[in-house]
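User: Quick one: structure for sequence A, then sequence B.

Assistant: Sequence A:
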Amino acid sequence: TCESARHRRRTMQGKDSAQDLSKLSIEDNFGHRFFIAPHRHTKTLYLVRHGEGYHNLHGEPSLGGDRANYKSEKYFDAHLTPKGWAQCRALKKHLDQAVTHDGCEHVMDRIELVVVSPLMRALETAVGSLGGDDKSCDPPVSRLDSALMLSRTAIEGVRPAHAAIGTRNEGTHEQPGRKSLKFLACELCREHVGENPCDRRRRTSEYAAAFPGVDFSEITDEEDTAWGTMIETNDQMCERAHRFMEWVMRRPETHIAVVTHSAFMAAMLREFGATDQLGCHERVKQETHRWPNNCEMRPVVVIDPSGGGGLDPMFFPGGRTGLDDFDEAENV
């Protein structure tokens, strides 16, 4: 049964953890570097690169494509391929089954917000992997926001047909009393700004009509005002990554999924991840800086030592302050 399979998986996870710990000795800790910071100055980000798009299929040499196709208008703001959608379903299945080591909590329940680049392939990946189930039909006009994405018909060589996708908190994922997972588009985590049409976005209103359950309020310009104005240098993209991280750290959520693109994700990881100044082991640097695969999810922890965090609901001051709202007579 499904329950027994989950039990076996949890048992194996526990054994794997025990085996890993049993191999450690005191000597293994010599030379390790640790850094402790207040939890409120940290965020856990679940970085996701989009699934395979038509621009990847026809432009990536490793997939049999020609890099010249990245310059083709045919792949303007490319959609996911059928394989890209399959990658989303595989990630969704993984997240639906992933539990904590004690088996008591689904990992997906930790995610409080999905931040997504306002490009078609990223939006499709976000709703396809982190959203709810496919719907049999589009919702009525009065309840359009109950669908993260409306259904679409196929256009040969441009996009496959796909059913509407519901919100996370309904159907098999329904949890009474819990709000639906919020999806928020953010221009700061878009792909490298250059000359490739696949990286030029559509009008915001066009996305909002196709993805009614996604919040586009953070995007102020209807048209893409960035594409075609420059070719971003690495320094410029890293500066944008800084602004994105500052924006993330100001948000109240602690666990945030970020659905983005390979070049931007790589720039973030180069700029902030496992630097020589931190004294990171070569294995950690390689793991951090490795180029992301299509539809890969890479969980990372961000620490802001400059003090950019918000309130931590788990923090308790203790002492006299901790008794301010405590009535001892009512809690005997």
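Sequence B:
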Amino acid sequence: MLKPQRLIVDDLLFPGKMPSFWGYDSLHVIIRLLTFAATYYFFSMLFITLKLPAGVYAPMFVTGAALGRVVGMLSMLIIPASLLTSEENNIKTGDRLACFALVGGAGLTASVTQTFSAGMIAYGLTGLEGLLLPVLLVTLISCGVGMQLSHNIYDSCCTLRHIPLLLVPSSHHALDVTAEKLMQPIGDRFVIDAYATKITDIRRVLEGCCSPKDDDSAIAVVHSKDNPVLLGSIHHRVLEKICNACEVAGRKEISMRDECFLNYIDQCPLVLNKDANLQKIAFLFHTLRAEFAFVVNFGMAVGTVCRKDLIKFQQENVSLY
């Protein structure tokens, strides 16, 4: 353990017999590697709690490489050479153990960080095409198992430090929570755009539905009040500027057919079905980095869901996550 991390990686991935630092026989080397992996993993988790960043990616790769080398050595002791093909027997022992170490490092790193890039980085260390399939396969399996057990290390650290972060729920009970239960009724958050809308009505919508400090607020553009089919959305600050320009020009009404209004309408806003479950909603917000979405029922705008509401629900229902 007195060696720096870079030299330890060189030892673990070395295609040959490990230096005498790790022991002189297989049993001694296995014990040293297991002791190193357990100690290194423990201190890596301990260092994460420090205010000074100590890194996660490299320590997990080193720990996984040590465990992978141990698995390789045990497999060579358990599986007799007679069960191996002639091509497998021709592979040098050191090369085989180095492959186990590389695959183990990629697997543990992928499971902890839940990133597919761990496999690509591990493959890039060698560039050997024969290692591409096992590295990618182990990476996929590790990511899947890690996602089923817990959140990735970065999201877990943010949660423990009470940093507002939207997580994708893992509990099956989250499937019972739908957008209809999470949404806020759309109320007056609409602009009648079929023909014309009075400037005074738009002012009333802006004053009643949008906070001056809310930069993510959007107004639903619907067909009519009686038939609220969602046609798009427009940011409340943009709509306010349009109203100011119309008042300066002496206009009392605006229509979606007006070029000054039509060019600013987002005709493809993020839309959720009222029956969409919490897992799908959180995944969409997490993947698209969305802040706001409209809830519809057969195309009719019925409510809104924003990231702040999802985070608040997450803090009140920790058991679902």
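The mean pLDDT is 81. The two ends are 37 Å apart (CA to CA).

User: Thanks, that's what I needed.
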